[in-house]
Design brief:
The chain has 14 helices and 35 strands. By secondary structure, it is an alpha+beta fold. Strands 18, 19, 20, 22, 23, 25 and 26 form a 7-stranded antiparallel β-sheet that branches. It has a 6-stranded antiparallel β-sheet with strand order 5-4-7-2-10-15, with no helix packed on it. A hairpin with a 2-residue loop joins strand 19 and strand 20. The longest helix is centred in the C-terminal third of the chain and has 21 residues. It is globular.
Amino acid sequence: MSKPWKASWITDPAFLELKPLPTLHKEYEPSGTAVHPEALRNRHMLVRKTVVLHEKPRQAVLRMTADDYYKLYVNGRYIGQGPAQGYVFHYNYNEWDLTSQLQAGENVIAVHVYYQGHINRAYNSGDLRQGMIAELYTEQGLAAATDNTWKYAIAAQYGTAGTVGYDTQFLECIDQRLAIPDWHTVGFNDEHWDTVAEKPEADYVFVPQSTPALQVYRIEPAHVQRLGEGHYLIDFGKEITGQFEMTARGRSGDRIELRYGEELEADGASVKHEMRCNCTYAEMWTLSGREDTLELFEYKAFRYAEVIGPPEAIRPDRFAAIVRHYPLDPEACRFETADSLLQQIWDICARGVQLCAQENYVDCPSREKGQYLGDNTVMGHAHMYISGDLRLFRKAIRDFALSAAVCPGLLAVAPGSFMQEIADFSLQWPMQLLLYYQHSGDMDFLQEMYPVAENLLAYFRKYARQDGLLENVREKWNLVDWPDNLRDGYDFPLTRPVADGCHNVINAWYYGCVQAVQAIRTMLKIPYEDELPALRQSFIAAFYRPEAGLFADSVQTNHCSLHANMLPLLFGIAPDQAVPAIVSLIRRKRFSCGVYMSYFLLKALAAHGETSLLYELMTCDDERSWANMVKEGATSCFEAWGKEHKWNTSLCHGWASAPIPLLIEEMIGIKPARPGWAEVSFRPRIPDGMPDFTLEFRTVRGSFRAAYRRGELSFKAPEGVKVAEK
C-alpha cells in the first residue's frame, strides 16, 4: 500500500466549480445530457514551483500524476511523462527518482498538464476532471507538495486546426509568439503568474503505476531531400511514434507548413498526409522572430515529414524526431535468419508491437490510440516474447477487469472514456489471463482476477438457451471479424444490436471461454463440474453439417464459412472425422479472413499438427499475406493484408503480429509446460523448407536459445529449467 497523500489536488481555476460529467455507461444506454464547454477542450496548463533545499539531497523521489496527462521538467530538464490512463477509481501515479537532478538552493519543478476534453479511446477525458497532484520526498521527509501556492499559466501557443481520427487528438498549430520561453527553468520570473486552485473534493483513488514510464529518445532522419526553396522531405527510415522536431529562425509571423505521413504520394516526392487511417496530419507553425524549437505535445504515427516555409528560416541540419513507446530492450528477443522474407515478416511484426505498446497497448497509434481487448490476445502474446517483460500485459488484463464497473461482461476498450462492447472480445479475457499465468506463474494475480472471470461467465450465461448455447447476445456487438468484408460471407445478420437467433462464432468463443475458466479453476484447485462435453454436443448438434463435414454459420443456414470452422478446430469442438474437411477448407480458402483472425486460424492448424500448412500460409505471397505487406513497403505490420484492403487502413497495427508467437511456440516448439517456465515444452515441428535461423528470448526464468543449421536444431534452456522434449 502506498502512503496517504498529504498534497492537495490542484486545478486550473476554470475547472474549480465544475462538477464531473458522467462518462461510464453501457454502450447502448444514453450517456447523459450535460454539455462539455468547448472553451475547456485542448487545455494546456503550465505549472511550476520553486523548492529551496538547504543541501543537495542524498535521495529524492517525486510521486505525481495529472489528468489527463503531463510532462515533467526539473530545473529546465525533461524528466518524463505520464500517467498511464486509468479510471478515476483506479488512477495511476508515477514515481520519479530526482536524486541526481536536484541541487542545494533553488530548484524548479515544472509540469505541462494537458486536458484533452473529448470522449475517445485515447484518454479518460471529457469529464471535466483536470489538474495534478505531486509530493517531493527527500531523506529529510516531505520537501514539497502541491497546494495553492503553486503558480500556473495557460500555454496559449497551442492553437488547433481541429481533431484527427475519432477525436483522438488535436492538431497542433503552434504560434511561437505566444509561447513562454524558459518557463521551466530556475530563475524564470513567475511573479505575474496566477496561483492554482485547490480542489479538496477531487474523487480520485490513486494507485502506483504498475508499469515503467515510457521510453523517450531522439533520433536523426535517415534521409533529408531538398525539394525546392524552403521545401524539404524528411524520411526517418521506418514507422515511428512520437513528435517531429526542428529548429528555425525567421521573422515574427513567418509560417512553416508541416505535414506527416506513413507513406509517400504516388509521385514519391510528397508526403501522403491525408492518410489512409482517417488522419490528416497537416499543421502550421508560426515563428516568433527568435530561434525557435518546435515542441509538439501529442504523438503521431509517421515515417515521413514534409517542411515548407521561408528558405532563410529553416535549418535542415536540425530536423529530428522524439520517439516514444513502452521500454523495450532489443536484446530481450532476437530472431535472425538468412531468409530475407521471413526476417522482414518477423521485423515488421516486432516493430508493429513495439510501437503499439505505449502506456497501454493501442490498436493503432494514429486513428484510435485505444486499447482493445481482442487485439490484446495477439499483441500481448507477441509482446511478452519480444520484450521479455510481462508487466504491460498484466496491466492490460487488469484494465479490462476494472471495466467490470460498467458491465460484468467487460468493455471492449479500456481504459478510456469511449464506451464500446464487443462480445467476441470479452469472451477472450479469461484466455488472456490464463496465457499470462502460463508465462508468469503469478498465482496471486490469477487468484485476484478469478472472480472477474466467473462474473463474466455468469453474464453470458443469461443468454443461454436450454441446450446451453447462446442466442440474442444483443447488449454487445457480435463482431466475427473486421473489416466486415473479410468475414468469408458469414451468413448471419451481424447488425448492431445483433439479429435474433443462434450463430456459430459467438458460441465457439463461449466454449473457449468456459474452457479457459475451467482451466483456471483447475490451477486454483477449485472443484467444478465439467460443462464442456454437453456444450460440445449442443454445438455439434446445432452447427455441424455431416454431409459437408463442416460447421455452418448459424442454426438457420448451411453456409460454412472459414470463421465458423477455424474456432471449432482450435478449441477441440470438431469431431475427429471433421478435422480433414476443415483443414482442406483452410487449405482452399487460405486467409479469407482479416489479419486479426489469422492468429486463431494458424493456432487451429498448429493444434492439429498442420505445421507445414501453417508455415506455408505465414510465408506465402498471396494478396492476403504478410509478404504482401512487405511488398507494399511495410516497416511495421498493417491493420489489413494490404493498403487497399480496408477503407481506413492503419499501417501500424499490433494485432497483425501472429507470426512471432506462432513461430516460437508451434514451429520451433518452445512454450511453457508449467506456469512461469518452471518446465519448458520443447516439441519442434520444423516444416520442410524452413531456413536456418537463430532465436534467443528472455523469460522470467532466463534466456532460451535455439539454432537451426542444415536441418539440425540445437536448444539451450536456462539452468534449473526442466525440458520436456518430444
